[in-house]
Amino acid sequence: MATKATNSRANSSVSQKDIEAGLEQVKNDIAALTDTLAQYGQSKINGIQSTASRKSEMALKTSEETLNELRAQVEQLSGKVETQIKEKPLQSIAIAAGIGALFAMIARR
């Protein structure tokens, strides 16, 4: 009977080759998981870079449009000022002198 018990334990015990094979499988699984995580991280980075690029292009386009609008407004205002000066030169000189005097008073304080 002791022989049967010893034989059954020997048959059910794990050999060193089985352990080494299991460890090799774990190594392969870890390597595959590392590759998968690297690919996932790279895809996230690419997505973030793409989003940032699109947003910066949109911001640049919006700022260019705003700058063009401001230039148009300045040109329009400049034209109005020129027209006002041509129509009423004495009044324009008086207004400019008054503004200059006001600035002078503020600067003295």
Low confidence ranges: none
Name the quaternary structure: single chain
Strand content: under 5%
Task: Give Rg in angstroms.
Answer: 42 Å
* Cα-to-Cα separation, first versus last residue: 116 Å
- Helix and strand element order: HHH
Describe the 3D structure.
The chain contains 3 helices and no strands. It has helices at 2-12, 16-87, 89-108. The relative contact order is 0.03. It is rod-shaped, with a radius of gyration of 42 Å. It is mainly α.
What's the helix and strand layout?
Blueprint: H1 2-12, H2 16-87, H3 89-108
Helix pairs in contact: 2-3
Quick structural summary:
The protein has 109 residues and is mainly α.
List keywords for this structure.
mainly alpha
